[in-house]
């Protein structure tokens, strides 16, 4: 498959950074190796005084895995990208520096801000609208702002420079395959829609439990915590996809309107001591590997009270979902990796007398990465036909051949903002979690503890005591 991208040049600001080396360049490589970045020019920029060879070497290293598995055409595409790529040293916050670079590039250009968030903001603030060539796309990483107010102010800075549909607020969770699997399941199957509401659904859980601990990311994570890192962005987006009304088209306007509408109806009920929980891991072992107490991890300020496990209950106050709890949870250093959305249905109104054996409700489980689908139902088991048994119907869903950042870049290069977060939605997500962050800061909700490698604090869903 070969396709010409709308974007002619991909400019990565933050060439020496972690995101660029570990995720962006490998994502781009897989995309290019499948012929989906034909005609693209890659430009790196950063504050390091790198020679063009040093940058090319970095690109080469990051392309290695994709190159090894590519066919002859894919290898050629990667070599051509590597050969043509150039590097520019600049301080993006210096007046006129980024403007001069943009003027010198072959447009249309996608500018990927792989920079610390504060630097990205400053770089946009020093740009003037007339310095941004027509057709330029701005690609912003998470976190997008740190509050509703700061997200709004960043939005205002950006829309001064380019139209909203040229701004890509990246959420790499919104990979094309995962999103389309949820939408396909919900809106291409008539049997689901009539039961997808408050009358039939008891609760919806969106869980992202990781077995990974800090993995050297203290500098970022200790200032963020699980609520900001995972729930404020990714899990609220997944929740919205599970809860939206059927859109008329899977186009960026209809889909993003539907997401925005459902988020506007969402909030975390008071008191937060009843609707939220937070915890931090202590020393333990995950998969046989020793994990130190979070507070003792290098680079962590133990007094800051950063949570490594967070859970919030979101209410969606609309006709379809009134009264159905949406429980969003994410944590680190847990014993069991679990990444899924689970819809728990209400029990049948009356089980005919004579049947036995039903002790759990129907559940629909949508797993993320790898994308899977499972449906737990009760049917007559073998032996005594009056004794019902649980059967799980399951399937693996089509996986993307791209890495998550390949999917992000595919949308950016095609000039399609469908899978990026719209400005108003970014503000809504902060509006939903900000009261919780404040309550936690004021210690209205205790910071619990759990051993690394366990299932979380006693009494939490998922922990031994919680079942
Ligand atoms: P790093 O700190 O690793 O890299 C930041 C980059 O910005 C470095 O290349 C740095 O160059 C460059 N830089 C800093 N100041 C300037 C400046 N004034 N002018 C030009 N370049 C500058 O950060 P990450 O790569 O980890 O993160 C980048 C963004 O991606 C952040 O918004 C982060 O939240 C987001 N993100 C990161 C993920 C990850 O796994 N790393 C995952 C998801 C999102 P130098 O060192 O030479 O100053």
From TrEMBL:
UniProt protein name: Glucose-6-phosphate 1-dehydrogenase
Catalytic activity, as annotated: D-glucose 6-phosphate + NADP(+) = 6-phospho-D-glucono-1,5-lactone + NADPH + H(+)
Source organism of the structure: Pseudarthrobacter phenanthrenivorans (strain DSM 18606 / JCM 16027 / LMG 23796 / Sphe3)
Source species taxonomy: Bacteria, Bacillati, Actinomycetota, Actinomycetes, Micrococcales
One Gene Ontology term, aspect cellular component: cytosol
Biological processes annotated in GO: glucose metabolic process; pentose-phosphate shunt, oxidative branch
Key word 4Fe-4S present: no
Domain Glucose-6-phosphate dehydrogenase NAD-binding, first and last residues per copy: 12-181
Family: Belongs to the glucose-6-phosphate dehydrogenase family.
């Amino acid at each position: 498959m070969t396709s010409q991208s709308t974007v002619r040049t991909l400019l990565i600001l933050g060439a020496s950074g972690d995101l660029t080396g570990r995720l962006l360049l490998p994502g781009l490589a897989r995309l290019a190796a499948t012929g989906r970045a034909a005609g693209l020019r890659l430009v790196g920029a950063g504050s390091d005084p790198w020679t063009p060879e040093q940058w090319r070497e970095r690109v080469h290293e990051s392309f290695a895995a994709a190159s090894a598995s590519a066919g002859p055409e894919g290898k050629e595409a990667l070599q051509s990208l590597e050969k043509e790529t150039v590097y520019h040293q600049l301080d993006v916050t210096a007046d006129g520096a980024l403007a001069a670079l943009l003027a010198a590039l072959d447009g249309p250009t996608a500018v990927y801000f792989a920079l610390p968030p504060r630097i990205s903001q400053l770089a946009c603030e020093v740009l003037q609208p007339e310095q941004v060539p027509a057709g330029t796309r701005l690609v912003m990483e998470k976190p997008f702002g740190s509050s509703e107010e700061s997200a709004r102010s960043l939005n205002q800075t950006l829309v001064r420079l380019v139209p909203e549909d040229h701004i890509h607020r990246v959420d790499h969770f919104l990979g094309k395959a995962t999103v389309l699997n949820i939408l396909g399941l919900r809106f291409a199957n008539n049997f689901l829609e009539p039961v997808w509401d408050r009358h039939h659904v008891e609760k919806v859980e969106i869980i992202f439990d990781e077995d990974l601990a800090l993995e050297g990311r203290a500098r970022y994570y200790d200032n963020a915590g699980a609520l900001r890192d995972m729930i404020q962005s990714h899990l609220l987006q997944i929740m919205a996809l599970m809860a939206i009304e059927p859109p008329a088209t899977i186009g960026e306007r209809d889909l993003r309107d539907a997401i925005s509408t459902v988020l506007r109806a969402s909030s975390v009920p008071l008191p937060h001591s009843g609707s939220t929980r937070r915890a931090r891991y202590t020393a333990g072992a995950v998969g046989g590997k020793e994990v130190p107490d979070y507070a003792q991890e290098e680079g962590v300020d133990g007094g800051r009270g950063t949570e490594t496990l967070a859970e919030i209950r979101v209410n969606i106050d609309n006709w379809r979902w009134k009264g159905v709890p949406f429980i969003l949870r994410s944590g680190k250093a847990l014993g069991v990796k679990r990444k899924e959305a689970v819809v728990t249905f209400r029990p049948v109104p009356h089980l005919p007398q004579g049947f036995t054996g039903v002790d759990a409700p129907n559940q629909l489980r949508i797993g993320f990465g790898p994308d899977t689908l499972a449906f737990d139902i009760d049917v007559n088991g073998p032996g005594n036909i009056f004794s019902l048994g649980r059967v799980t119907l399951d399937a693996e869903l089509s996986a993307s051949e791209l890495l998550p950042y390949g999917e992000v870049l595919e949308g950016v290069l095609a000039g399609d903002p469908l899978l990026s977060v719209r400005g108003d939605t970014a503000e809504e997500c902060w509006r939903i979690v900000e009261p919780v962050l404040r309550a936690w800061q004021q210690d209205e909700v205790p910071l619990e503890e759990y051993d690394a490698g366990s299932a979380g604090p006693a009494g939490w869903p998922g922990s031994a005591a919680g079942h």
